[in-house]
Amino acid sequence: MTSSSAMDLIVFLSVLTFLSFSQAADTASASNSGAISLTEAVSEARRQSPKLQRSGSMAEEASWKKVEAYSGFLPSVNLSTTYLTSYRYALTDITLGGSPVSVPQVVPTSNVAITATLPLFDGFASTNRLLSANSFSEAAKQDYSWTQFQVDREVTLQFYKTLGALILKDVANQNVKTLQDHLNDVSLFKKAGLSTHYDVLRVEVQVSEAQTELLNSVDNIEINRNRLSELFGKDTDVRELSGSLPVLSPELIKSIDVNNLKGRTDLQALENRTEGFRQNESSMERYWVPRINAFGQYQYYNNLNDRFDDRERYREAYQIGVQLNWNLFDGMISIAKSKQSIEQKYQAEKALRIAQIRAQQDASFWKRKYIYFCSVYQSRTADVKKSTESLRLAKEGRRVGARTNTDLLDTETELFRAQAAVINAQVGAVEALINLELATGQKLYTFN
Predict the structure, then answer these.
(1) Where are the beta strands (DSSP E) in 41-180?
(2) The pTM of the whole model exceeds 0.70
(3) CATH superfamily ID and name for 3-74+122-290+332-440
(4) What angle in degrees, to the nearest 10, is found between the helix axes of 125-191 and 265-284?
(5) Over the stretch 205-247, which tens digit does the pLDDT of each residue have?
(6) Residue 60 to residues 85, 140, 186, 262: CA-CA distances in angstroms?
């Protein structure tokens, strides 16, 4: 098999593979329900995002833990009832009238008891526990707010990445068609003696590279679509995207202060979480303080016979008093929990510090990246204009014989590369801007 035949076979197989991908994409597109805009995508993600739903559930859980913390101030009421189906009374031996007598310890076979307990003093452990729950609840709300902002930005970024991949596919597809036309022309010129075998091989290599880029662009579309579907909480989503890539300018971030992190509600949540652990530590270290409770109990019982429905035999009893409990030793459980709370507070403080340092570094990094991509976009846009003019001149030159087919091919390749670079620069600028927003917590641009 000659080199030319082998190359023709590679080209044929590449085209066949591309047509298979295109057919699969067309089948998927035929089954979709219509195009989706960025605004619709963000709204859908807010409704269906598992990440956002999980954060909302965590906020709801934290609010109920706050309700739980009120138990240190509110009374508790318990109802208990017993009915003995079989028993043998304990006997107490006493001397009555000089004769020993065994007196049974009669226990009610039917008994209903209501017991109420009201905490009076616990060394302010309940107060600190409530303050801790308040801090954790506020942190969970701030986390939810941040997650919503994060999901909005992640969907926006993935939307434009997918849109950019679709545009790059069109550019790559046009490049393949142009190179195929050149390959046909060069093959005909070779038969006529106007081109050499070297010219044919050179074009065949470029066709092979262009088809590889086309297949890669198809893969990128699939990858980005899957990531967008994941943000929607779906297994797959084949709807078309409507919109265009935004053109961003460096002036957009000229006045931004990368050290201003007041908009980072996730950092505020970490601060509140750290405060919650501090209050929890204060609560846990009061294990040595005695607890004082007021209590009352009412009993309705029958110790005269074994019937539970004989209302005339039931009697009443009650008791009211104050109870003091002092934990002198519980096997080191309280001490261990107190030490654990200290370490939890320490870990939260360090996690907050790490997040603050990383936020400042990320903000500075993405600010530089944004300026870089804006500069690349401007230069590549100028390159497209220059390449377009060069292509026009190359066509005119070939028409009059001053330029060769190779010159025209090189000019067209430069134009396609410049067009692809423009798209990549736009997507890069969007990615840098969104990551800068996430690093500073500030909404810098309204995408639509």
Answers:
(1) 76-83, 91-96, 99-104, 110-121
(2) yes
(3) Outer membrane efflux proteins (OEP) (1.20.1600.10)
(4) 150
(5) 888 888 999 999 999 999 999 999 999 898 887 788 888 999 9
(6) 45, 8, 70, 25
